[in-house]
Design a protein that fits this description.
Elements lengths: L2 E7 L6 H14 L4 E4 L2 E3 L3 E3 L5 E3 H10 L10 E7 L2 E6 L2 E7 H7 L4 H14 L2 E5 L17 H7 L3 E6 L5 H10 L3 H6 E9 L3 H15 L3 E6 L24 E6 L4 E2 L5 H4 L4 E6 L2 H4 L4 E4 L1 E2 L2 H10 L2 H10 L4 E4 L1 H5 L3 E3 L11 E3 L7 E16 L14 E11 L8 E3 L2 E4 L10 H13 L11 H19 L2 H8 L4
């Protein structure tokens, strides 16, 4: 069975996911077969595996860093929030239904066999498993039924490293306070602490680190620098949403829907030095973009109502009428049609039918069974300004409850309005380039001025940069001693 190490955090967004990705890359570089694992993830950013299972994107990123194929065993339980008090529950990659928070809390220990089956099968195939916790292990109101932090550590007898985010401030209180709230047997599992996202001279930290070691009774295993790498992150905590980015040579506006999901679909456009990708949630921020992107959402009807009420629907329609192209993906694609119906209340939005934006000739009906599949092919018969995509290969995955008709093309288009159900459609070689080249021609801009790159090579460079930064900040000799049960 594989050796195991677990990363827990003092809070959400302490950097657990990226740190786990860095460790996965380091262990891969050192010649080990390594796999990531997170028993329960709550995220709207999900992925469909080759066998049609659904999992969180954080473990997909970690799998990429480890150089292996994403597998639903790496994330046996995925919760996708549908309301403020409920989520869609996905176990082993398959939807189990929607549950209110209290119902899931009462039932979640029923899923322990699925968690352990997934973990044990991965552990049988790998040398090392890197487990990620969720939130904080010191949520004392949730500890009794925990299956993702110390509860998970106990189930697989995992040693734990506790990470705190110094960039937010208060890291010493975060780390010591978390350790202080643990039970004695839980404290014994903590083999060290990590200060994450540090900027500056480590010497200034040393007195605090010495005191922290005395208070917690374990060493500070490392101080990891604030890493500037371009690696997909998760959900609304993403820093990209808060960027106040000025328009560049080409300007792309992504509509930041309240329940936005899979926003990493648009990452390929961020790689160009002279392309701005701005997330917009009010009319005053839209300005005059060269392309509008309408993303996926966990609730098409509710977010379409929001789009209508805040005035962005009218502003988008005006921009499209003036010649600005728009591309919707999944839920955003559904919004562009004539109508959206939900007779079974699959989305639990309280409305069974709503008029769409009327920009594409299609109608969507939500059904009880989710479409979740990987897909690939060659673009054919795309009309209008994006006709130059025809002949290019695409691949990605579909994940949606709504149906918008039989035999839909991979991209539906009308005038300058386009949509697709395929997540990851812009990732395939040449697709983002071709779209940007088309816009450049219309604006009289030289495409080469945007700066181009090889996506696959670029990703590998980013994972290696992350591994270098994590390795430089951590005492890797001590971490290997933890893995070997020498401490």
């Amino acid at each position: 069975m594989a050796k195991v190490i677990m990363i827990q955090g003092t809070m959400s967004n302490a950097g657990k996911s990226i740190l786990c990705a860095g460790l996965c890359r380091i262990f891969k570089q050192d010649g080990y077969r390594v796999a990531p694992f997170k028993s329960q993830n709550m995220a709207l950013n999900s992925f469909i595996t080759k066998d049609g299972g659904e999992m969180g994107r954080a473990q997909v990123v970690q799998a990429e860093a480890a150089g292996i194929e994403p597998d639903v065993r790496m994330n046996p339980i995925l919760l996708k929030p549908t309301t403020d008090v409920g989520s869609q529950v996905i176990v082993g990659g398959v939807v189990q239904g929607n549950m209110r928070a209290m119902e899931y809390y009462r039932r979640k220990r029923e899923y322990i066999p699925a968690i352990m089956d997934a973990y044990n099968s991965l552990a049988a195939e790998n040398d090392i498993i890197v487990i990620e916790g969720a939130g904080s292990p010191a949520e004392i109101n949730l500890k009794q039924e925990d299956i993702v932090n110390m509860g998970m550590a106990k189930m697989v007898d995992a040693p734990v490293l506790l990470v705190g985010d110094i960039d937010r401030g208060g890291v010493f209180a975060q780390l010591y306070g978390t350790v202080a709230l643990l039970e004695e047997d839980e404290k014994a599992r903590v083999k060290g602490t990590i200060v994450n996202k540090f900027r500056g001279d480590r010497a200034i930290l040393e007195p605090g680190l010495e005191t922290l070691e005395k208070l917690c009774g374990v060493p500070v295993v490392g101080v990891v620098p604030y890493v500037h790498v371009d690696i997909d992150d998760e959900d609304s905590l993403s820093e990209r949403f808060s960027r106040n980015q000025a328009a560049k040579l080409l300007d792309i506006a992504v509509i930041r829907l309240p329940r936005i999901s899979n926003f990493t679909d648009f990452s390929p456009f961020e790689r160009y030095e002279n392309v701005s990708l701005r997330y917009v949630d009010r009319v005053s921020e839209l300005h005059n973009p060269d392309l509008i992107l309408l993303p996926g959402t966990k609730s098409t009807i509710a977010d379409l109502q929001w789009l209508r009420q805040c005035g962005l629907e009218a502003a988008i329609s005006k921009a499209v009428s003036a010649g600005t192209p728009i591309f919707g993906v999944c839920g955003g694609y559904q919004m562009l049609g004539r109508s959206v119906r939900d007779p079974m209340q699959v989305e639990a939005a309280g409305t069974t039918e709503i008029a769409g934006m009327g920009l594409l000739p299609m109608d969507t009906v939500f059904e009880g069974e989710k479409v979740q599949t990987q897909t690939r092919g060659v673009f054919r018969e795309i009309p209008g300004m994006l006709s130059s995509l025809n002949g290019l290969s695409y691949e990605g995955y579909e994940i949606h409850m709504g149906r918008s008709g039989e035999g839909l093309p991979p991209v539906m288009g009308s005038g300058k309005v386009y949509g697709s159900y395929i997540h990851g459609i812009f990732d395939a070689p040449g697709v983002a380039d071709t779209i940007l080249k088309t816009i450049c021609r219309q604006k009289g801009i030289d495409f080469e001025a945007l700066g181009t790159f090889d996506m696959a090579a670029y990703k590998e460079i980013q994972y290696d940069k992350l591994a270098d930064a994590v390795r430089s900040g951590l005492d890797m000799d001590y971490i290997y001693r933890i893995l070997n049960r020498e401490v």
